[in-house]
Design brief:
Blueprint lengths: L12 H5 L2 H14 L14 H18 L7 H16 L8 H6 L11 E8 L9 E9 L3 H9 L6 E9 L9 E2 L15 E4 H19 L5 H8 L1 H18 L18 H24 L5 H21 L10 H15 L3 E4 L2 E4 L1 H22 L4 H13 L23 H6 L10 H15 L19
Parallel strand pairs: 3-5
Antiparallel strand pairs: 1-2, 2-3, 4-5, 6-7
Length: 466
Amino acid sequence: MTVKARDELQLQAAEIRALPAWQELKEAAIDLQQVQVKDGSVPESSDHARANANIDKIVASIQQLQSHLPHDNEYLGLVVQDFQKWQAAGLGEPDFLDSLLAFQPQQWRINGLPHLVIFPMYTQNGSTNRFVEAVLIDVIWPQFIDELESTRYSNKLFVPVHFWDFTPGYDTNSAVLFPESVAVRSTPSFSWGAIFADREAARFRRVLKAAADITSLQLPPDAAALIDDQKLCQETFVMWDLIHDRTHMRGDLPFDPFMIKQRMPYFLYSLEELRCDLTAFKESVLVERDETASAEARKHAKLVQYAVIFDRIFRFAISGSRVRNYDGLGGQLLFAWLHQHRVLHWTDGKLSIDWKDVAPVVVELAIAVEELYWRSIDRPKTAHWLAAYELISTTLTPNPASVWAKGPDALPLDEPPRGLTDQVLDDEFPLSMFYEALEKKMRPVIESTAGITGDSSTQLPKEASA
């Protein structure tokens, strides 16, 4: 079930954060991490007394907080049992399957509903250690999102959330909470995925402000409002993520776009993530123009279009390393596509965008990727890879040292596909001169967003010097 209202007598996440029980739980989890190893176990017998004392504190804190989280009562009760079973088993590799199966936040998509999430888990884009991490969150579920999900974009697994507090594993760039990160004895069927929309929005606001200042880009008033209003921005990201997330399994797909557990060139991951974002853009254009949609949905639909473009070209393109950076490649491709279709201009040291002409150009790129996918249903794997490379390389210039850029005759087509993957350079499509200069100016700003939340976004850093 999806419940539509929150009990107003229930404590909000900000109030739970101030309780001594939460602070004690967090401190105990952090101290427990000091004696855990990568798989989550506590192998040294000399550390067991310290670990058990911290687990006892965590259990006591959970039991004190449980009354404030009645919707999570079964799950929190099982978390306590899983901690105690872990202790009884000698603190080997932890197993929290029972409590994980009971945690079903997608059933309680209520705006402002708090959750205490505590598991031994790694954090995507953060720590790879399965340490005990604790996260205090609440759900972001405005009425217009409920309308869109129930009528147009069904996504029963999607849970957008807001950070209130967390242990060090989430003091990183990680903006997702997935059940597959939890230490369990066997892999269950996963039924939800949480996205920290407040972190995505806060990161976006800081980066967009700096990038617009550096490039002298004049933002339309409604786009500029995203910088000024955290709530508006994070609700925009919820709409973007709602459509993006469901797109991974929808459309004319070449069986499995991610080819799970199979090696393939990183630029294919780039196209898949870009396809989902371009679908969000394209669908938002339709919602904006739909007079039957609510005013809030139409307003946010326009903002999603700004967010997709700006986040892709200003943050994705220059974040992370140059080693098989598939999100970075997608940002580079979108920028170059807009530039070469003459709706984005870098002239006289200033960036400008012809907003009245942008939507059809972005949709054209979306259609090109969709056509690639549709045709690849009838293509061998190698042919699909070559076609994908051609689509990208007609817009982006490959590395001069690239074997792929020389065409099929230069590639080991008579060998297993792994040989083709090995021929892809770590930086197959290097940054353009524009991006090399922009990255140097933006690097401190992007680095400053690690660990950012909606609460901490109000203090924007000083503009980078132009």
